[in-house]
Design a protein that fits this description.
The chain is an all-alpha fold. It has one domain. It is built from two helices and no strands. The radius of gyration is 24 Å and the shape is rod-shaped. 0% of the residues are buried. Keywords: Membrane, Transmembrane, Transmembrane helix.
């Protein structure tokens, strides 16, 4: 095996490992984001947000209620 072939194999291994790491990190980030979306979609949570908006009078000054 020449040095060139060894370098190509090494680059392929590093690239595959890097792609796997990026995929794992992306899956974790997507999972956390989905959990947050599910939390805010629950009716009880939306009621709490609306109650807080009314209590803080966000709607009177054009403040953002739902983010």
């Amino acid at each position: 095996m020449t040095q060139f072939e060894f370098t190509l194999i090494l680059i392929a291994i590093i690239t595959t490992t890097w792609a796997g790491i990026i995929t794992a990190v992306a899956k974790i980030a997507i999972s956390k984001h989905k959990q947050q979306i599910e939390y805010y979609q629950q009716p009880k949570t939306q009621v709490k947000i609306a109650q807080n908006a009314i209590r803080q009078r966000f709607f009177e000054d054009g403040g953002e209620v739902f983010r």
